[in-house]
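G., the chain you wanted modeled:
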Amino acid sequence: MTAEMKKVADMVTANTIFTTKAVLTSDEAAQYMCISKSYLYKLTMRGEIPHYKPMGKMCYFNRAELEEWLQSNRIATSTEIADRANQYCMKGGKR
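Predicted structure as tokens:
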């Protein structure tokens, strides 16, 4: 197997692990979310991201919870904002 083929195989294996593995380590979680490990550490210390410490030291992350957290605080599109404004105006400024 050539070095390039091995590299591709390793990438496929890593991506498969991320989509099938339910619990991720700190390294895996940072890589999964494309953030630095230090930023992930800051998020855990601030209590901003869901995580687990079963033995009080190592952090673990539930992949489904990370996905939910990543998709929180959705920003509305300009069209959605305009639609809400129109609906608000049609009701005479009442909610």
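The helical segments are 3-20, 26-33, 37-45, 63-70, 78-90.

Shout if anything looks off.
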